[in-house]
Amino acid sequence: MTELNEQYQDSSNLNIRIKIHERFSTNKEDWHMWLFDHYDVKPESKILELGCGDGTFWKKNGERFPKGCAITLSDFSSGMLADAQRRIGNLPNVTYQIVDIQQIPFDDHYFDVVIANHMLYHVPDRERALKEVRRVLKPGGIFYSSTIGKEHMGGFNDLLTRFDPTFGFDLTNVQADAFGLENGAEQLNHYFKHVKLTRFPGDLLIDDVQAICDYICSSGTNANKALSGKKREQFLGFLNHEKEKNGGFIKITKATGLFESK
């Protein structure tokens, strides 16, 4: 099993990363509610989400969608999809399906809206994936895809490097280099005539050093192994010193946004 598959075999690691934003964001507007506010969904729409995760977005926003929408929630991970189904429940207008974005098992021009949040940077063949999204969208349909920027959560890398320069972790920049705020429009423009980026404001002010350690360890097995045992205790001590030095908080820069493509 690859490290990516291990991370997303269920929603446990994802939940750790979601919670740090919910607890410590300087922008108190809920991310999932903000996303919905930027979606343009008409009544009776057919909607596909690729990489639905644990279904938190739909748990928070399901009742806000117009009447008559038919919603297909999909993920490449059966464990993640099972978590979403447990979280949301069996609703008459919602179906669950394991789907690989690189080979979407639906007819041409089938959906009014396709959503892929914080997942395109994981896709090995993004060109094929975006062709598939374009194919299954109806004429006039909309593709929503959120992602991160190169500065997003980079403060964690800085903390790790100052604690132990031999770690050599890069928790976010590789993802942003693949499909980020800085280069996402260029990739989307090959398949869509109109692409608009809206950024989500706010940073993190964290006063719980355990939350920082949990977040870093949730990013992959290498981080979890490196910060184990005595090393983890030393890292927590280092974080406490950093927190006290900076007035009781550790500030982490966020860079997140949403592409709307037509």
Keywords, separated by commas or semicolons:
40% helix; 262 residues; 19% strand; alpha/beta; Rossmann fold; two-stranded antiparallel ribbon; 7-stranded mixed beta sheet; elongated; single chain
Q: Could you give the order of strands across the largest sheet?
A: 3-2-1-4-5-9-6
Count of discrete domains? 1
What is the subunit arrangement here? single chain
Q: List how many beta strands DSSP finds.
A: 9
CATH superfamily: Vaccinia Virus protein VP39
| Helix amount | 40-55%
Structural account:
This protein is of the alpha/beta class. The protein has one domain (3-152, 171-203, 254-261): Rossmann fold (3-Layer(aba) Sandwich), CATH 3.40.50.150. The chain is 40% helix and 19% strand. The chain contains 12 helices and 9 strands. It has a 7-stranded mixed sheet. Helix 5 (78-88) links the parallel strand 2 and strand 3 (94-98). The longest helix has 16 residues, at 230-245. The radius of gyration is 19 Å and the shape is elongated. The chain starts with a helix and ends with a strand.
